[in-house]
Structure formats: C-alpha cells, structure tokens
C-alpha cells in the first residue's frame, strides 16, 4: 500500500471551545485519527492544520499528549490560507468543517471532505458523492484513500460505514462500484438525495465526512473517465 499524506483541521481533532481539566475536549475525528495512527508511518502520514495563532500550540500539544494521540506535525498559519501549506507538504486527503477551504483544496487536486460537528458514538460515516468520480480535476489521493478505508473495514467492520450518494438525474456507473469492489471497500448504503446538496445528505443520514463532487445540472460521463483517477495500487 502506497504512502498517503492526510491533513486534518485542528477543529476536527479537538472541540476548541471546550476545555476540561486544562486540555481540549476530543473532536469529531479524534477516535478515527487514533485508528489511523496504528498504521505504519510508511503507509499513513498525518498533519494537523490550524489558521490560529501559534500561541495556542502549548495547550494543543499538551492535549495531544494527555489524550495519547501521537501526532507531532502541527502547522499553525497565523491566519494565512492553508492551501499553499497543503500543497507544499503534498497532502493528498484533507478534512475540514470549512466548506470554502474544502472547495479551494479540491480545486487544486486535493481530495477534501467536509466534516460535521457531530461526534460519532461508535461508527464513523463517510459518504462519497458519485459526481466526485466524474470531476474534471484528478484527485491523486483517491486511489490510495479508498483501499485504506477498505483495509480499516476489514480490521473492524463496526467502526466505519461507507455510503455513496446519488441524485435524481444520474445513476452510479458500474465502474465506480467496481472501483470500490477492487479496493475491497464495502459500500454499506447508497443514498438518494433529490436536491443533490451535501448539507441535506449530512443532516438526513447523519454523515460525519462528506466528499462532494462538482454540482452539475446535466451529468454525463467524461471522455476516458475510466482513466481520470490515476489509480496505481
């Protein structure tokens, strides 16, 4: 399995407005990150990003230590845009609650997912918009991310639910289903959303991470679409 570089916004790691006994309270993706950190560093490398001032770094590292999340690569931009940092560190998958930043990241070819503010009680739900696979942007991280999710499912079937969203105007191509099958990543549910809006999907189906595709009125497969993912695994 190839090395995958993952970036996550600090607000997904900790609930930054909640402090208990001198440390930040665990956030939406905390448990999932702990699960990812069990992998060899040659498989997964994780960065935490924040636009906050570095003055909070001491409390952040103290919280990471107390809660036993062994991530030491934390980048504070002090208000600057994250995109140039993501590109410089060659991050391939990024999570944030900021939809604007997610859209900016996807525009430069970084596979980015919007996270909800609901902390999962047991199962983490990840949804993919089928239109993502037809975007004109090539997401190099996609061919590594899906097999990694499949591997996590094999280790603990109850910890992860993978869902695929479709809309009124377009059905899921067979090759997309085959992609998940070949990656040994089980699609647990296919969700139909008439509006095609990610916010509706996250609310109705209690999704924790959503990878949204390009919003189009008329959806049709792109020429040579079977090659756009640059999958090599």
Architecture overview:
- The structure is a single chain.
- Strand 6, helix 5 and strand 7 form a beta-alpha-beta unit.
- By secondary structure, the protein is an alpha/beta fold.
- It has eight helices and eleven strands.
Secondary-structure blueprint of this entry?
Layout: E1 4-9, H1 10-13, E2 14-20, E3 23-26, H2 30-36, E4 44-50, H3 57-66, E5 74-76, H4 83-88, E6 93-96, H5 99-107, E7 111-115, E8 124-129, H6 142-155, E9 160-166, H7 174-182, E10 189-192, H8 198-205, E11 209-211
Parallel strand pairs: 1-4, 1-6, 4-5, 6-7, 8-9, 8-11, 9-10
Antiparallel strand pairs: 2-3, 7-11
Summarize the structure.
The chain is built from eight helices and eleven strands. It is 29% helix and 24% strand.
Share of helix, binned? 25-40%
User: What's the shape?
Assistant: globular
Distance between the termini: 7 Å
Strand content: 15-25%
Summing up helix and strand content along with how strands pair, one would put the structural category as alpha/beta
Sheet with the most strands, sense and barrel status = 9 strands, mixed
What does the radius of gyration come to?
Answer: 17 Å
The helix tally amounts to 8
Name the descriptors.
233 residues; alpha/beta; 9-stranded mixed sheet; two-stranded antiparallel sheet; 8 helices; disordered C terminus
């Amino acid at each position: 399995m190839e090395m995958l570089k993952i970036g996550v916004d600090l607000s997904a790691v900790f609930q930054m407005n909640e402090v208990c006994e001198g440390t930040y309270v665990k956030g939406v993706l905390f448990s999932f990150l702990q699960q990812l950190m069990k992998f060899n560093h040659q498989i997964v490398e994780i960065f935490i990003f924040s636009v906050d001032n570095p003055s909070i770094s001491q409390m952040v590292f103290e919280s990471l230590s107390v809660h036993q999340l062994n991530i030491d690569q934390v980048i504070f931009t002090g208000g600057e845009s994250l995109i140039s940092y993501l590109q410089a560190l060659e991050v391939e998958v990024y999570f944030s609650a900021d939809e604007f930043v997610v859209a900016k990241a996807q525009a430069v070819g970084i596979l980015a997912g919007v996270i909800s503010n609901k902390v999962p009680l047991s199962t983490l739900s990840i949804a993919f918009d089928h239109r993502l696979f037809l975007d004109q942007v090539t997401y190099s991280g996609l061919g590594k991310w899906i097999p990694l999710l499949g591997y996590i499912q094999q280790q603990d079937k109850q910890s992860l639910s993978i869902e695929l969203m479709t809309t009124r105007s377009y059905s899921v191509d067979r090759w997309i289903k085959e992609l998940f099958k070949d990656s040994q990543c089980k699609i647990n549910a296919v969700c139909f959303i008439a509006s095609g809006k990610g916010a509706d999907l996250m609310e109705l189906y209690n999704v924790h991470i959503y990878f949204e595709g390009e919003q189009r009125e008329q959806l049709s497969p792109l020429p040579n679409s079977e090659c756009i993912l640059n999958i090599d695994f």
